[in-house]
Design brief:
Elements (H helix, E strand, L loop, with lengths): L1 E4 L6 H10 L4 E4 L26 E3 L5 E3 L1 H9 L14 H20 L10 H22 L11 H16 L7 H12 L1 H10 L9
Parallel strand pairs: 1-2
Antiparallel strand pairs: 1-3, 3-4
Helix pairs in contact: 1-2, 1-5, 1-7, 2-5, 3-4, 3-5, 4-6
């Protein structure tokens, strides 16, 4: 399978999930700093994803899949019960709640509001206050838990992305010790380390 990614983007979450599941991905760099976005061979990324953003996972049948939450659940279900509760399990609803919460209440507060300075300082301060409230909720939830659902799931892979952005986006974690401890546990996982290295790798040309 092929994952279209950028080192600064939320494509890190599927990279972590794949590494945890032992799924090999061919990473294809997308230059999201160019308008329009381009691929290493100079072609336009819009041919892969008309919505222009990353990530996109190209499945074994050649069909593209976008949206981080959908990609994460697809990868998790290739190893049933390992990275996500089984579809019929009541805990699956909890996983879907977390994926939606992270996507709408954290991810989309960082991007575009904190990753694009042109939106202005007032908007950015508002976004930071909202993020602090969300982190307070997550911090309380993590009290007495190693991971969001107790054991590692793809929800943790997704949460790793905005928490990893926190320092650069000036959303400090000092008031959230449970998130800080969770972040250390995440960074210590060998698969997370492997994914982080691969996801930051030098762009390579598309295979012929």
């Amino acid at each position: 399978m092929k994952l279209y990614y950028h080192p600064w983007a939320c494509s890190l979450a599927p990279a972590i999930a794949a590494a945890e599941a032992g799924i090999a991905l061919d990473l294809v760099h997308v230059d999201i700093l160019k308008d329009p976005h381009t691929l290493p061979d100079g072609s336009l990324y819009s041919a892969v994803n008309p919505r222009h953003y990353v990530p996109v996972l190209v499945r074994e049948n050649g069909e593209p899949l976008s949206e981080v939450a959908a990609i994460l659940q697809y990868l998790a279900d290739r190893e049933p019960g390992h990275l996500a509760p089984l579809p019929a399990a009541p805990e699956r609803i909890e996983l879907q709640q977390w994926l939606t919460f992270i996507g709408t209440e954290l991810h989309k507060m960082y991007s575009p509001w904190l990753l694009h300075p042109e939106v202005g300082e007032l908007a950015q301060e508002y976004a930071r206050s909202k993020i602090a409230n969300r982190y307070a909720f997550i911090d309380r939830h993590l009290a007495g838990r190693d991971y969001l659902l107790g054991t590692f799931t793809v929800a943790d892979a997704y949460l790793f992305v905005p928490v990893n952005w926190a320092a650069g986006a000036k959303t400090p974690l000092g008031d959230f010790p449970n998130i800080g401890a969770w972040f250390k546990r995440m960074k210590a996982r060998p698969a997370v380390q492997d994914a982080f290295r691969a996801h930051s790798a030098t762009p390579k040309l598309l295979a012929a």
